[in-house]
Structure formats: C-alpha cells, structure tokens
C-alpha cells in the first residue's frame, strides 16, 4: 500500500462514533512514518475518494469518540480539521508506538500527551532552555573529539537530544514531588550525562583522559557519580 493511502490510517480508533462506515477499518493504527509536510495534505486530502468520500465530505462535521483527545474542548470537528490535527500529532518528527500495551489507562495517558491540541508548543523561554541544553550537549562531544580523538569514549553523537530530554524529565519529576532520581545507562553518552545532566565537575571528568593527572580507567565511560 502506498504512503498516500497509509496516510489516512493514522486516524482515531476502533471505537468510532458517527464516522462514515467506510473509514472505520482504516482508523485502527498510527503508522510510524513521516512524510514531507508539503506532501501530506496533498496525499491525504487528494485521495479521500479511495474511502468512498469526496471533497465535500472534508467540510462535514463528525462527532469525536471519547478515546481521542484531538478535539480538546470540542466534541465535534470537520473531517478536514480531524485529519490536520492527526497529522500534527502523528506525522511529524516523533513516532509513537503504544497500541500493543494491554493497559487501556496507559494507552490513553500516552494518547493524551500526543493528541491534546497545543501540547507540543513551547514558550520562548522553554525554547531557549532546550536550545542551550542541546548546544551544551553538542559542544561537549565536539570538544572531546577534538581534544582526545584517539580515546575510547562512547560518544553521544547523533543522539544529543538525550540531554535536554533527561533534563526535562528530571525537572518535571521534581515539580511533581520526586526527591531522588537513580539512573542506570549503557556506556554510550555516559560522560555527556555526567557533565550536562548530573553536572559533575568537568575537571574531574577530563582528568580521566590524562594518566598524568589521575589514574585513568581502561574505559573512561565506566566512570560514575552519586
């Protein structure tokens, strides 16, 4: 099946209410692919005829089921807006796979975090904070690569977003009353986490690379802190 046809399969859920019967078999999953933003509207909106609909149906208002959160405070939306909101939730840069979870409450919690309108919008201050954390993560890896290019360090290149993600998780946990966080992780990225999440002193981390300053471990990423 082509990506243009799959596009409509990301919609609501099996327990639909007041939607055309022809759509119900299609609205059961959330594909983990991302089409270019310029092609998604053309692919989905331009092939509604495949589902027994025509262009006029895009303006029809349909009542939303209780299993979706795309409506926000609205209980009904035009089909065009339903598709647009689902595109925003599931056809961007983040894929989510959760329908295999047997616990309905857990599924609904994840669905709410992705589908609620505006949930992915950030304030200017939040954007600056995320950018600053990303820059610290990237620059840290660049410095280690330039300074100790021959050392085994299991860098975080290509996954630097882990740092702002972990920082955000810890911040939100703290806001909700969590007092202690215990983390265990593989070697890859451990130094970056120590420096930019745990905020261990950089001097203590860097001296592990130089045997003249302190006895260096065979594998630097075995280093830990508390």
Protein described:
- By secondary structure, the chain is mostly helical.
- Helices cover 37% and strands 3% of the residues.
- It is built from eight helices and two strands.
- A two-stranded antiparallel sheet has the order 1-2.
- The model is unreliable at 1-43 and 215-222 (pLDDT under 50).
Major sheet strand order: 1-2
Through-space gap between termini: 51 Å
Query: What's the rounded overall pLDDT mean?
Result: 75
Q: With helices defined by DSSP (H or I, 4 residues minimum), what is the helix count?
A: 8
Strand content: under 5%
The total beta strand count reads: 2
Q: Can you tell me the overall shape?
A: elongated
What does the secondary structure layout of this molecule look like, with pairings?
Elements: H1 3-6, H2 40-45, E1 61-63, E2 76-78, H3 79-90, H4 104-115, H5 124-147, H6 162-175, H7 190-196, H8 202-206
Antiparallel strand pairs: 1-2
List keywords for this structure.
single chain, 226 residues, mainly alpha, two-stranded antiparallel sheet, 8 helices, elongated, disordered N terminus
Summary of the model, kept short:
The chain has 226 residues and is mainly alpha-helical.
């Amino acid at each position: 099946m082509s990506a243009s046809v799959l596009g409509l399969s990301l919609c609501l859920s099996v327990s639909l209410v007041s939607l055309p019967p022809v759509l119900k078999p299609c609205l059961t999953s959330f594909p983990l692919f991302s089409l270019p933003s310029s092609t998604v509207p053309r692919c989905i909106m331009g092939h509604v005829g495949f589902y027994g609909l025509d262009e006029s149906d895009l303006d029809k208002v349909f009542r939303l089921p209780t299993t979706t959160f795309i409506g926000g405070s609205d209980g009904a939306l035009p089909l065009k807006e339903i598709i647009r909101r689902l595109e925003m939730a599931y056809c961007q840069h983040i894929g989510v796979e959760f329908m295999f979870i047997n616990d309905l409450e857990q599924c609904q919690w994840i669905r709410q975090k992705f589908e609620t309108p505006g949930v992915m919008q950030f304030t200017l201050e939040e954007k600056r904070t995320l950018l600053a954390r990303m820059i610290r993560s990237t620059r840290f890896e660049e410095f280690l690569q330039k300074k100790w290019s021959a050392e085994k360090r299991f860098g975080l290149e290509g996954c630097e977003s882990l740092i702002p993600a972990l920082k955000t998780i810890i911040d939100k946990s703290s806001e909700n009353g969590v007092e202690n966080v215990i983390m265990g992780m593989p070697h890859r990225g451990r130094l970056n986490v120590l420096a930019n999440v745990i905020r261990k002193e950089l001097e203590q981390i860097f001296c592990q690379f130089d045997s003249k300053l302190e006895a260096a471990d065979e594998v630097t990423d075995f280093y830990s802190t508390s």
